[in-house]
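Worked example 4.2. Below are the chains of a multi-component assembly; read each line carefully before continuing.
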Amino acid sequence: METGELILNIVASTLRLSTPLLLAAMAGLLSLQVGQVNIGLEGLMLAGAFTTVVVGFWLGSTWLGVLAAIIVGMLLAALFTLVVTRFKANLIVSGLAINLLASGSTAYLLKVLFDTSGTLSPASLESLPTVNIPVLSDIPVIGSLVFSQSPLVYVSWLMVPLTALFLYRSIPGTHIRAIGQNEEAARSVGIPVRRRQYLALMLGGGLCGLAGAHLAVGDLALFREDMTAGRGFIALAAVYFAAGRPRWAALACLLFGMFEALQFRLQLISSTPPQFFQMLPYVMVVVVLAIISARKEWRKGW
Amino acid sequence: MKTSFVASFSRTLVTVLLALLVGGLIMQLSGKDAMGAYQVLWNSAVGSPRALANTLLAATPLIFTGLATLIAFKAGIFNVGVEGSLYVGAFAAAWVGFTFVDMPGILLIPLAFFAGGLVGGLWGLIPGYLKARLRVDEIVTTIMLNYVAILFTNYLVTGPFFVPGMANAMSAEVAPQAQLPRLMERSQLNISFLLALVVLALVAFLLRRTALGYEIQTLGTNATFARWMGMPVARTILLVMFLSGLIGGLAGAGQALGVHYRFVGGFSQGLGFDGIVITLLGRNTPGGVLLASLFLGALRSGASTMEMFTQIPRDLIDIVTALLIFFVAVEVTVPKVWKYWRGGSKTQMAASGSER
Amino acid sequence: MPYLEVRAIRKTYPGGVLANDDIHFNVEAGEIHGLVGENGAGKSTLMKILYGMEQPDSGEIWLGGQRAHIAHPQAAIQLGIGMVHQHFQLVPTLTVAENIALGRETRRGLFADRGVMRERVRALSDQFGLHVNPDALASDLSVGLQQRVEILKMLYRNARLLILDEPSAVLTPQEVVSLFEVLRRLVAEGCTAIFITHKLDEIMTLCDRATVLRRGQVVGTVETARVTPAEIARLMVGHELEPPLARKASAAESRDRLIVRDLQTGDARLQNTTVNFSVKSGEILGIAGVEGNGQTGLVEALIGLRPDAKGDILLDGTNLHGLSTRDRRKRGLALIPEDRNREGLSRPMRIWENLASGEYDRSPLNTGGVLRLERMRTAARALMERFDIRAPNEGVAVSTLSGGNAQKVVIARELATPPAVLIASQPTRGLDIGATGFVHEQLLNLREQGCGVLLISADLDELLALSDRIAVLFEGRILRIFPREEATREQIGLAMAGKVESEQAR
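Applying the procedure described above to all three chains together yields the following structure tokens:
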């Protein structure tokens, strides 16, 4: 019975922990598909988390905080787009700059506005209320674990099919993929390339804002400096792992979320060092990329 | 060549001033005295011999990581993995330092640096091999391997090299004779700064005066041509990634032996990534790397004093640095932007190549 | 009244190249009109002007009786002009239907109405006999089918005048046959086509009329029913002979410097073809041929950039098979590559650095891995003097040099020490008359010194003026080798088009 409980426990926290990964991964996927990989996901999330707490606290509404996080995420993403498309700045450098800007300005504002460093947890700020899905949440055992979650958990799961639908079925989404694969072809048939690049990257910015919001108010209601803790890069790993396919990216996020859940639980009962679970996503990406390339090279007859 | 150096230097100066200006604006907007803050910053960065020493101390790892990034950039390789090399190098150096405690310092310190450089270099060879032989994009692999290095070294000091009684993830202290001799009283500035200068000179010599440097330059400016001339392209990539990792490892070794006296998990906080900023600011030249490292080192070492005296968070420096990156990245293409607005033609922008 | 009328089009590119000089021609409605000419005759410039990718300096285009202003491709599409480029503009992971409708999707809210799009594509396929599965991914299609998709893309945009830029260049013979069927069907359905090619048999079988361009000018429009291929070939390559270069009688000795035996370059499109030839000491062997018939593969295989090439390459008796590019160069193989800016130079680097790129790895420029910069500069200055490279000094970047001077840097580097064999691939492309003369002189000098020279050129005049023998490369093999005395423009032109008269291929 105890192991059964443990497993259910792990399932529930996997769902919770993979939420920010899913949202950020969909953002990374949009950026990859439009051909402008954004390694600033981490920074966009952090800015989103900070905004949620600050605006939510000021306006006395957590939901308004979440909305503000989406907007801030989109604005920062617009800055990124401007720099990498119009000014042709290097993608990686610009992404790193976004990360630095986010971590620097959140820490700075934390001290200037609230005269505190490290953590901000306003007492009056409430976390998002748990939402019970009617009927489903009444299923014994599983119901309360899976269908009784913070609302953004459901949103994150909704975002996977929505992103897929957008990219593969909608007209702007099709254009985004066309631009990413053959910008010249897209231009030659009159697609407004620059506008679509903004669209893809700013949608991603909004998703990252949501991801940050979940970190901030999904469970507890607080902001901590660098609380994203590399999740932006894990999301990016999921995207590369899945070679840009939404379903596989979602699966990878779930897997990586499970590693995170495991590392907390197993620490208590097994001797496997937690770092190995933390490392796995990154190692898996390198191995997968190596295998894919090796197969390509062999086929070419090397 | 002279004029273009002056031109690029003055252009960089303009962007630096612009970033500082915006930084000042941010301070004013948050109700602080920007001029006063900058004055404190200046004084605490270069105002006294001790302040200057601390600036050099802060610049030391930046010189290393800047050079590590530079040497790869020169070959057209975007090595984002200096951070990873720095971690494994730091651990290897610390391990030597706390393991061979009976060795005299004159042997132990070089051995520790050697171990740090070697391990850092081998770490760089992983993405290097993947790129040279399998053509795996080095950007993704190096980003990912950074986290592997950070987590793995963290595991080492919480697992096999765990020291009971230590609160944080850190190794045992290195032997006293392995702790780098200081160059000045009351400052941690140590001989690793001198080593950084030596490496700087060696890198400059390598790039300008050796056959390998020539191959690096050719590969970086036109890889197709390098192949058609029969240059050993794969070998050059491997060597460059090894050297880049090696210099990153030396950066880590210097911090472990000269500042922390042990390996501390997660100590770097992005020193390896700073290398990219340094190279960008330094316009891809060894001399530029030195200037940019001194500048950023001054900002960082001055910032903590500034925080103490003016209540302006030191994190402002990160904001300024981020702005600086944007400005430099954008400024590179300013003439193009100009042409774009004047010509009013979209095709011009579309046709202009991207900077790597 | 003709459907399309081109009047007095003139186009000069920056740098003074006159690409189109007073071009007149017209196309009747419902016709397949051929446009032929050698490389550089001005065909692509003319097509780019028709499709709005380039603007003419002067001249008019009339379409269906009205003056047409074609400022950009979108305007051309509006006017019903469609173009199938040589390089397809498809998005690999989109389906055929999505590619065809790209940018012109039928909307249903935010989404594309795939059903309607698929139906329209299917209807078009049926109407024009262009069968292709609308749900297949573009990346899964053969080249021939990709081309169909490109044609459908134009028809989907209601193009009535289709311009096809060398559509057969990338196709297998079977695919060419079905392309022709498609084009005939299109015309039967009321379209008009301009078919660009330099293959004479295609003109003869497919086109009603053909306009021949030569050196930017129209040299005639012919009705294919009334002329022979030879007559068109004569128009293409021209009659006039330039004054022959001062060229001594054959210096060829009997010694073979380069022997190429059963060489397979590993080109995917030219499988199962082998190349055989030899170059003697003191001989210039010209390689004629329409581009894309295996020249690139041949050069890359010779210099060692095709690891999967098979066959023997003997340089002064040593087999180069399996040797690296560097080792081949060290054994005396020199190369003037086709694209000097990509393959022959590093433009951001300085003149002296570029000049040293063949010798930097050994004495005297290199002692123990350390470069002797002074020696490099001195050597560079001497070479600049010897090869008349015009530049302020040896320290300026190659990117600041004119095309001719940049090419001289390549030549100076390759000929600094006399090679055993020089491969010169399109060595005068894009050069002015003076620089061209200089290059020719250098090649003849080498010949007199007893080197073997392999000259690959698209310029027949150049080949005729310089070569001791001319080999014609067609679809990956040497169709025939003409001794100088027997080489005439007509014969070579026909061979280039795949037509060999009487004699067997050697």
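Take a moment to check your reading of the output against the notes. Residues 340-356 of chain B have pLDDT under 50 and may be disordered. The domain at 2-329 of chain B is CATH 1.10.3470 (ABC transporter involved in vitamin B12 uptake, BtuC).
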